[in-house]
Amino acid sequence: MARASRRGGAMITVYGFSPSGNCHKVRLLLEQLGKREDRDYRWVEINSAIGETRSADYLALNPAGKVPMLALDDGRVLVESNAILHWLAEGSAYLPEDPWQRAQALSWMFFEQYSHEPCIAVARFICGWTPLDSPRRAELPALREKGRAALAVMERHLQSHEWFSGPAYGIADIALFAYTDVAGHGGIELTPFPAVLDWLRRVRATPGFVPMAAPDARAQALIDASL
Amino acid sequence: MARASRRGGAMITVYGFSPSGNCHKVRLLLEQLGKREDRDYRWVEINSAIGETRSADYLALNPAGKVPMLALDDGRVLVESNAILHWLAEGSAYLPEDPWQRAQALSWMFFEQYSHEPCIAVARFICGWTPLDSPRRAELPALREKGRAALAVMERHLQSHEWFSGPAYGIADIALFAYTDVAGHGGIELTPFPAVLDWLRRVRATPGFVPMAAPDARAQALIDASL
Predict the structure, then answer these.
(1) Which residues of B touch A (CB under 8 A)?
(2) Per-residue pLDDT tens digits for A83-140
(3) Chain A residue with minimal CA distance to B100?
(4) Average pLDDT score over residue span A141-161
(5) Fewest CB atoms within 10 Å of the CB: B21, B42, B140, B209?
(6) Which CATH architecture group holds B99-226?
(7) Hey, do A12-89 and A99-226 end up sharing a CATH topology, with the first three levels equal?
(8) Are A166 and A96 in contact (CB under 8 A)?
(9) Domain spans, chain B
(10) How does pLDDT run across A172-192, given as a tens digit for each residue?
(11) Which intervals hold domain GST C-terminal (chains A, B) (predicted)?
(12) How far does chain A reach from its first CA to its final CA, in angstroms?
């Protein structure tokens, strides 16, 4: 298939919760694509932490009740953050053209959803978005240990590679950046992973980079009280 | 890029554990591709249940110590079952060419690794490959409940679609088939999901279909004792 944009001129609407790393992935790529392709998109804020993904209006659009969701003008929707990234990046520099490099990028994106997000993002969620007496807090030690194991896999890769998406920055970096950058919110320190810290700095320096929204005051207070 | 095979004539070696659904996905696709393209591959059995993924020889090939792993003759390796499927299927009828359909297939494959495998496959693993007095068995009720929620999402899709990969059978079906077909090993009954049962029958009827290896006698006895 051609390397032309697959998205044509249709307006894209993203339903997302700004402090969610899975949602921020989509915003970061769209912002970075926008710098190159003058693309436009709408962002509809859906606060999944207070049940807005469970409203009747939202469930009519997306019966799975999850964010992020990408919607086209004709009503078609796409869910799963990394599938959205892959679709948006097709034909751009953020997805390598070489089949083997593409496969490696996709491999890191599956690693992110299987071995990284369920530990690092979930530890952060428990710290910032559950009460201090939540029974879920008993999960934190195991989640942090598994999160550190995932970071060790990333550290090993970064000792001999600059990026996760192939020879250049791309969607596997965006997928892994989201929750790695805020691992500290879940009580996972990054200082034992110097190559990861260097890579985070390289990602932040890419053209068009936008940071994720900070947690609101209530979530930040819970995070501070969790450490 | 062209729809020609990306794999050229290089011999592929798959390191896998035959009763693992993640590994069987790769075998099933290769068997089905072989019927069309006269492809050859080697299968190296690695019993992850007795620690063979942790041997020095295996860790030298794959420091992450996981199966399945695909290796090329020149030593390059690819991990993550669904990334392997995507790479192998490129240029074949098992991966739709239409970008939106491809994105939907990928979306289901991320769903499989995030919302399906960690419940349905893990419940099966605990039942068949941990002792009857394992403390992990306390996880089973919650895993089964989440597994049924994932099956309900599949059931809803199948009420209006024949396949998960677009208009035809393909890699999202292969990814979801693997552990759905053996959900009963983990104590998750499929009778409440008639569209899922019909789809499983359609998958089994596809050309070149091969079933997954049955658990060995010891695992089967543990499964039987778990129900």
Answers:
(1) 1, 6, 63-64, 76, 78-84, 86-87, 90, 97, 99-100, 102-104, 106-107, 109-111, 113-114, 117-118, 153, 156
(2) 999 999 999 999 999 999 999 999 999 999 999 999 999 999 999 999 999 999 999 9
(3) A87
(4) 97
(5) B42
(6) Up-down Bundle (1.20)
(7) no
(8) yes
(9) 12-89, 99-226
(10) 999 999 999 999 999 999 999
(11) 98-223
(12) 50
Low-confidence ranges of chain B (pLDDT < 50): 1-6, 38
CB contact under 8 A, B110 and A107: no
Q: Least CB-CB distance to A113: which of B99, B110, B153?
A: B110
Query: Strands, DSSP E only, in B6-89?
Result: 12-16, 41-45, 69-72, 77-79
Burial group, residue A130, by CB count within 10 angstroms (0-12, 13-18, 19+): middle
Closest residue, chain A, to B153 (C-alpha): A64
- Looking at residue B39, its pLDDT comes to 64
ipTM of the complex: 0.94
The phi and psi torsions of B129 (rounded to 5 degrees) equal: -130, 15
Tally Cβ neighbours within 10 Å of residue A166: 22
Nearest to A24 by CA among A172, A198, A175: A175
Q: Which residues of A touch B64 (CB under 8 A)?
A: 153
Cα gap B35→B117, rounded to integer Å: 28
CATH top-level class for B12-89? alpha beta
pLDDT tens-digit map of A84-93: 999 999 999 9
| pLDDT score of B9 | 59
Q: Residue B202 CA to chain centroid, in angstroms?
A: 17
Whether the Cβ atoms of residue B94 and residue B166 lie closer than 8 Å to each other:
no
Q: Map A66-125 to HEC letters.
A: CCCEEEECCCCEEECHHHHHHHHHCCCCCCCCCHHHHHHHHHHHHHHHHHHHHHHHHHHH
**How far apart, in Å, are the Cα atoms of B34 and each of A157, A226, B119?**
33, 54, 31
What pLDDT, on the 0 to 100 scale, is given for residue B204? 98
For residue B14, what are the β-bridge partners?
B43, B70
- Interface contact B83-A90, CB threshold 8 A: no
